């Protein structure tokens, strides 16, 4: 479905109707990729552009199911600030019910084959001409599609500037990394502290079983020169040295933290679009009512994201550890992990009123709730920036990929939490929760968390460092689109 959206623009000759500049944003079909790209879309649209967010047909079905709506309804434009957001989708070349979809190697190969012609056709059929295409990692071929169509393009890096720098230096062989011949190599990069093997994104280690992910991530750096803009979901105040250092080789534009502003601060009224979601799982909104029944700073919130899988032993230790903290807890346990819980645990803690287990949560709203005392997190970058934005102390429990350096940043650079050693034990979990919620150390952590909350809010506020960068992008796209509208 193609939608024409027009707006009014003042000129020296008076007002006239023009088609809004139109940006197409293309996301890999994963929750951790969709969320930041949608939030960037909202901020861009709010400044007067039409944004069409695209992903695969399977993603469309999952978003529609989670939102209890139809796929067709997602194509309708929704007002966000001075602009609009809508969705369109394309085929990934895999039948909806084909179980091979869960095979990442197969999915990536199919996306690379079916995606480019499908996306090119989608762009060509738009009624409002497309002025620019923006993608996120894992779909690097989008930059090639944009180049073939003669359109400027951008990339939203959905991890930290530090991790961008690590991958960039690895891709271009600008530093020595651990290898089979030198497994203990210390990586020295400008703007970053010395990195031991255990500090690196795990995909870069020669022992990683996920070499396909390493290949796809590094591939993004192969055609990055095609992009007119490289955005990052971070902010200058958080990663100034890393951003400045890598920008001598590749300019990155911090536009984060990409989170939806809380309604009570008036941000959503200004930006709008709070009702627009790209959730692949249905969030348990009743968790907010559950939180409201508990005192301020009392609840332990636990989530390891949409991909991480904990072992049965870890699940058992975490379950009894949470119960033995003596604090109420809200725990996100996906349906595929329920069977690894101790028998009857969910029912027992619910009956006692001390715990609530949900399959998915409205995480930003949860973290903003005054009842939350701390966040036990896998340290995915979205969760990391959401924790910093909410000013919530963390217990870091990274598993793989960029979660490892993210945890190091939260604990050592930001000073907002402690690291839970893996594999988790109930005793260590209790110790870590106590460390960030009770005593002098906890007071220091809470103070640092509050400072980062203030810095994050300042970055995205009108005239803040990230807001200025988004405005500059909107101005440039509008300028480039003007000749086509005349």
TrEMBL record:
Coiled coil: none annotated. Its EC number is 2.4.1.-. It comes from the Eukaryota. GO terms for molecular function: quercetin 3-O-glucosyltransferase activity; quercetin 7-O-glucosyltransferase activity. Keywords: Glycosyltransferase, Transferase. InterPro entries: Glyco_transf_N, UDP_glucos_trans, UDP_glycos_trans_CS. PROSITE patterns: UDPGT (PS00375). CDD domains: GT1_Gtf-like. It is an enzyme of class 2 (transferase). Residues 23-62 form the Glycosyltransferase N-terminal domain. Belongs to the UDP-glycosyltransferase family. This is Glycosyltransferase. It comes from Zingiber officinale (Ginger).
């Amino acid at each position: 479905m193609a939608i024409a959206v027009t707006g009014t623009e003042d000129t020296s000759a008076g007002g006239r109707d023009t088609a809004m500049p139109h940006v197409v944003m293309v996301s890999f079909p994963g929750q951790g990729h969709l969320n930041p790209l949608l939030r960037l879309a909202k901020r861009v649209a709010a400044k007067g552009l039409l944004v069409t967010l695209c992903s695969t047909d399977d993603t469309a079905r999952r978003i529609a199911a989670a939102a209890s709506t139809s796929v067709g309804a997602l194509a309708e434009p929704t007002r966000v600030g001075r602009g609009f957001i809508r969705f369109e989708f394309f085929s990934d070349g895999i039948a909806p019910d084909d179980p091979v979809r869960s095979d990442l190697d197969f999915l990536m190969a199919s996306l690379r084959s079916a995606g480019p012609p499908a996306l090119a056709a989608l762009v060509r059929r738009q009624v409002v001409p497309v002025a620019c295409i923006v993608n996120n990692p894992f779909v690097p071929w989008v930059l090639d599609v944009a180049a073939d169509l003669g359109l400027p393009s951008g990339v939203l890096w959905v991890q930290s500037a530090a991790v961008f720098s690590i991958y960039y230096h690895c891709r271009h062989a600008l530093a020595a990394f651990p290898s089979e011949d030198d497994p203990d190599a210390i990586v020295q990069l400008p703007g970053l502290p010395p990195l031991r093997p255990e500090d690196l994104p795990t995909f870069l280690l020669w022992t990683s079983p996920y070499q396909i992910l390493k290949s796809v991530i590094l591939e993004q750096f192969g055609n990055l020169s095609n992009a007119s803009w490289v955005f990052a979901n971070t902010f200058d105040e958080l990663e100034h040295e890393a951003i400045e250092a890598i920008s001598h080789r590749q300019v990155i534009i911090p536009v984060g933290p990409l989170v939806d502003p809380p309604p009570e601060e008036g941000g959503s009224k200004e930006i709008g679009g709070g009702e627009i979601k790209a959730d692949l799982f249905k969030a348990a909104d009743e968790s907010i009512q559950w939180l409201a029944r508990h005192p301020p700073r009392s609840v332990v919130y636990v989530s390891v994201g949409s991909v991480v899988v904990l072992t049965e032993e870890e699940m058992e230790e975490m379950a009894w550890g949470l119960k033995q903290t003596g604090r109420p807890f809200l725990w996100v346990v996906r349906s595929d992990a329920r069977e690894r819980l101790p028998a009857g645990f969910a029912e027992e803690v619910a009956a006692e009123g001390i715990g609530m287990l949900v399959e998915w949560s409205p995480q930003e709203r949860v973290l903003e709730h005054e009842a939350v005392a701390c966040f036990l997190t896998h340290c995915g970058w979205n969760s990391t920036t959401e924790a910093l934005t909410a000013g919530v102390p963390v217990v870091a429990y990274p598993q793989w990929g960029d979660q490892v350096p993210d945890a190091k940043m939260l604990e050592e650079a930001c000073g907002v939490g402690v690291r839970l050693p893996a594999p988790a034990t109930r005793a260590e979990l209790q110790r870590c929760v106590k460390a960030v919620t009770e005593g002098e150390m906890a007071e220091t952590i809470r103070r640092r968390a509050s400072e980062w909350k203030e810095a994050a809010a300042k970055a995205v506020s009108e005239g803040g460092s990230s807001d200025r960068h988004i405005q500059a992008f909107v101005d440039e796209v509008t300028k480039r689109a003007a000749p086509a509208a005349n």
